[in-house]
Design brief:
Its EC number is 1.14.11.18. The chain is an alpha+beta fold and 333 residues long. The chain has 8 helices and 16 strands. The strands form 4 sheets. Strands 1, 2, 3, 4, 7, 12, 14 and 16 form an 8-stranded antiparallel sheet that branches. The chain is globular. Bound molecules: ligand L6B7KVET, adenosine-5'-triphosphate, 2-oxoglutaric acid, fe (ii) ion (FE2) and magnesium ion.
Length: 333
């Protein structure tokens, strides 16, 4: 920000405080209807977003940017994904998930059975996604300048095996995160091909980022539910839904309290997307014991115990270990 712009901002802030004190003054005897200009709460003015884009995110909790990641980059991510599935590269910390319908069947799995890669922060080729300058330019509008890549995923949503297990129940990503404040966390989710209702695009409930974190549990779906796919049981089913249909390379940025899920994949192909959750490194960890997030901490502990032989690890320590700085300074997280 230039000096004069900074001074102007200070004057505006000062005037806001002054009018607030006039309104609050018991001696004035008058009722003012004047409202000081509302600060935009969910985004920073870095000069990147247009006023319309900022207002859209404030109101809806997400922002779709068309054509942000090049075909060439997406092709490289796809090839690296295939190499990982063929086990030509192995990496520490990587979680490979298969759809529960496939995992529980007699079917001998090959690379097509991988439904999700998680925690690819140690793979330089895939991790390039998290540091793409055009993505970070947007991320910074929500996190500020110190940016940590906290969680990485490549989702390979399989054609539904007939049990609707390819669905992702409605949830808030904050359920998985023991850090705050939530307003300085954002997800970037890039379509690696055309995504639409037929192959299970994201479904969002616009505006729900203004609410609070809800209790999450396994949905009681007859055909089974994937491990850790917790959902919100009683969200308002009459709330308007939006199906976020996207072209290859389009990227949606969304708030961690936004209620979202994704539908069944009714097509033959595997629907691919790559994503990263970012947080300001100035965020702080919280202890989730005694909160609605205790159930996810217990499950993560169970996996950490089974897979890595670590006992009683706190949820926050698993995140401190996985997070990587991508811009600025690592101040707190
Ligand atoms: C210090 C470092 C500690 C690191 C700790 C790591 C903790 C993981 C944290 C994950 C945090 C998630 C944060 C997400 C935040 C953003 C929001 C995103 C929302 C989500 O997407 S959450 C859903 C993603 N969930 C996961 O990825 C869960 C993690 N996955 C796994 O642990 C394994 O992939 C899984 C599912 C346990 C499979 O392990 P694996 O050992 O490879 O599988 P096996 O073939 O040996 O089967 C074991 C057993 O599990 C059954 N199984 C397999 N796949 C599934 C499945 N998809 N769903 C349910 N059950 C599954 C399988 O049938 C076997 O069962 P048995 O009864 O036969 O024993
Ligand atoms: N009972 C439910 N509990 C939790 N989440 C649900 C539930 N029903 C749907 N959803 C979520 O909302 C998404 C979109 O729902 P939508 O109604 O469009 O499709 P669907 O329920 O998968 O299939 P159908 O077309 O048969 O209704 C689902 O894929 C899932 O993520
Ligand atoms: O289906 C998807 O790609 C989105 C999944 C999702 O919301 C998540 O993993 O948190
Ligand atoms: Fe999610
Ligand atoms: Mg339905």
């Amino acid at each position: 920000m230039s000096r004069s712009a900074e001074r102007l901002r200070m004057v505006i802030n000062h005037l806001d405080r002054a009018t607030a004190s006039i309104r609050a003054s018991p001696t004035s005897g008058q009722t003012f209807t004047y409202r000081p200009p509302q600060k935009l709460r969910y985004s920073f003015d870095t000069g990147m977003l247009t006023p319309e884009q900022r207002l859209f995110y404030e109101e809806n909790g997400f922002l779709l940017i068309k054509n942000l990641v090049s075909e060439a980059d997406i092709e490289r991510f796809r090839q690296e994904f295939e190499r990982i599935c063929r086990q030509e590269v192995t990496l520490p910390g990587l979680l490979v998930m298969r759809d529960v319908a496939i995992a529980k069947s007699e079917f001998v799995p090959d690379e097509r059975a991988v439904s999700k890669l998680q925690d690819f922060q140690e793979n330089p080729e895939l991790f390039r996604y998290c540091a793409l300058p055009q993505i970070l330019k947007y991320v910074e509008c929500f996190t500020g300048p110190n940016i940590m890549a906290m969680h990485t995923m490549l989702i390979n949503k399989p054609p539904d095996a007939g049990k609707k297990t390819s669905r992702h129940p409605m949830h808030q990503d904050l359920h998985y995160f023991p850090f705050r404040p939530s307003d300085h966390i954002v997800c970037a989710w890039t379509a690696m091909e055309k995504v639409n209702r037929q192959n299970g695009c994201l479904v969002v409930l616009p505006g729900t980022h203004k609410g609070t974190l809800q209790e999450h549990n396994y949905p009681d779906w007859e055909g089974g539910v994937n491990k850790m796919y917790h959902g919100i049981r009683d969200y308002d089913p009459n709330q308007p839904r939006m199906y976020v249909e996207m072209e290859k390379g389009d990227t949606v940025f969304f708030h961690p309290l936004l209620i979202h899920g994704s539908g069944m994949n009714q097509m033959q192909g595997f629907r691919k997307a790559i994503s990263c959750h970012y947080a300001s490194s100035d965020c702080y960890y919280i202890d989730v014991r005694g909160t609605t997030q205790e159930n996810i901490e217990n499950e993560v502990q169970e996996i950490a115990g089974k897979k890595y032989g670590i006992n009683e690890v706190a949820l926050k320590d698993t995140w401190a270990f996985r997070g990587r700085l991508v811009q600025g300074e690592r101040t707190s997280l």
